Amino acid sequence: MFDTPPRPERERGSATIIVVAVIAAIVVIALAWGAVAQARAARHHAKMAADTASLAAAQHLSLGEASACRAATRMAERNSARMRDCSVDGEAVSVTVSYRDTVVSGGVISAEAHARAGPVTTGV
Prior knowledge:
The structure is a single chain. This protein is an alpha+beta fold. The protein has two helices and three strands, in the order ααβββ. Strand 1 and strand 2 form a beta hairpin. It starts with 13 loop residues before the first helix and ends in a 7-residue tail after the last strand.
């Protein structure tokens, strides 16, 4: 019914090159998206570890600064994080933790987070 004009011999296979290029672009975008997702997950994990460590320290503050910081360190380690800093300022405890994880590509991603815990004050 419809006759298509013959293609020149040099254009044969050009669609294959375009398809390969599109697939390669999709793979690169997917890998980049995965790396961003893993970085965000590491950041959230570090923040969670810092929050729980500061709460553990605040809970043990009545036993002294050393005891509070030991409790914070134990809690950070339970959350696969490493305690970087622990300090007490009156009735408040500040902690900084770091978290490292292996990414799909075989590299290592790290994140650091800070949290503070202490008594709750109300304006009543």
